[in-house]
Amino acid sequence: MNPRYKPLLQSYEFHSGVQLHNRIVMAPMTNWSSHLDGSVSDEEVQYYERRSGQVGMVITACAYVTPNGKGFHGEFGADRDEMIPSLRRLATAIKEKGSKAVLQIFHGGRECPPELVPGGEVVSAGSVPSTQNPSVTPRTLSSEEVASIVKDFGEATRRAIEAGYDGVEIHGANGYLIQQFFSPHSNTRDDQWGGDLTKRMAFPLAVVDEIKRVAAEYAKSSFLIGYRFSPEEAETPGITMTDTLELVNALITKELDYLHVSLLDFWSKPRSGDELDRPRMDLIKEKVANRVPLIGVGSIHSAEEALKAFETGIPLIALGRELIMDPDWVKKVEDGHEAEIETTLSKDAQERLLIPDPLWKGIMNAPGWFPIV
């Protein structure tokens, strides 16, 4: 092994006591490959098995916590106890390879396709269509429904515990329901769940509190709780870096195991604010001030790029598309063969890389997203 990359392979222990054997995390990525009933498919299990063992932790694709929160075709569910065997199957596949298994849980809110939710009724914090889903005007959730969804996140966490996961990641990013409550674009409420910045944080923080309560009651051993967020929105009004830094401060008081910053580019800079020349990760790290671990992600492919990101003071580095292209990324770094890491995807690689058909078709239809040769 090249000693230069040794820091990436050091072990890490979270606040909860969960230990990772290195600093590389598999980022959560939708693969569209579950069965219609929300259960995990054979292809999906094989895909995760192929990418488990070398990385310290695998964060799964998002699982919906309630039937009206299913945001993708081919997404797996954590919305009812009948899903526990399916969830267990995936957790076991990941853990038997040697990685920690973290279930990402979410509600799609206004981004849900109507055909996937009961009665075709899409719901959100307010009745504002999204840029991605402009033809659908969501129904504003009642206060009672909001409180019920908070409980649904807790129930999904209980199922994750019973299924053997090492933790859950709260998906508060990428424009889904939790972010919809935090955003002034989508949250037009004037009750306890919306209004000023503090009230727009009420739902995200209530979800965190409920998950922590459930974990304390049901987890018999160390159990991770993380939170993923997107720093800014393109819409006006929308979430700003100033808003996000306030949310980060509030989340830190909850003693979470980590915060996961959702970025397409680790080095991207803010859209607005007083410090447009500094990377968003730098501003977030400064606000965090080592009070909670951060996971950084975004267009990191080579060992050198991962090391550069790590050396900014971010203790954990997530790889997404790169682990689809090269599941042996960590082993190649360990063996001193980092120059052999594959950063392109050949058109005949599906079978070798155990990529499920729906995910493969998505990749082939988006060649700009994946470097394809």
Topology:
Layout: E1 12-13, E2 19-20, E3 24-26, H1 42-50, E4 57-64, H2 84-97, E5 100-106, E6 123-124, E7 139-140, H3 143-163, E8 167-172, H4 177-182, H5 197-200, H6 202-218, E9 224-229, H7 241-252, E10 258-261, H8 280-288, E11 294-296, H9 303-310, E12 316-319, H10 321-325, H11 329-334, H12 350-353, H13 357-364
Parallel strand pairs: 3-4, 3-12, 4-5, 5-8, 6-7, 8-9, 9-10, 10-11, 11-12
Antiparallel strand pairs: 1-2
Helix pairs in contact: 1-2, 2-3, 3-6, 7-8
Structural features:
globular, alpha/beta, single chain, 373 residues, two-stranded antiparallel ribbon
Describe what is shown at a glance.
This protein has an eight-stranded parallel barrel, surrounded by six helices. The protein has a two-stranded antiparallel sheet with strand order 1-2. It has a two-stranded parallel ribbon with strand order 6-7.
What's the number of extended β-strand segments?
Answer: 12
**N-C termini distance:** 29 Å
In N-to-C order, the SSE pattern is: EEEHEHEEEHEHHHEHEHEHEHHHH
pLDDT < 50 runs, ≥5 residues? none
Shape assignment: globular
**Biggest sheet: strand arrangement:** 3-4-5-8-9-10-11-12
How would you name the oligomeric state of the polypeptide chains in this document? single chain
Q: What is the typical, i.e. mean, pLDDT?
A: 97
Secondary structure class reads alpha/beta
Number of helices: 13
Helix content: 25-40%
Largest sheet descriptor: 8 strands, parallel, barrel
Provide the gyration radius in Å: 19 Å
Strand content bin: 5-15%
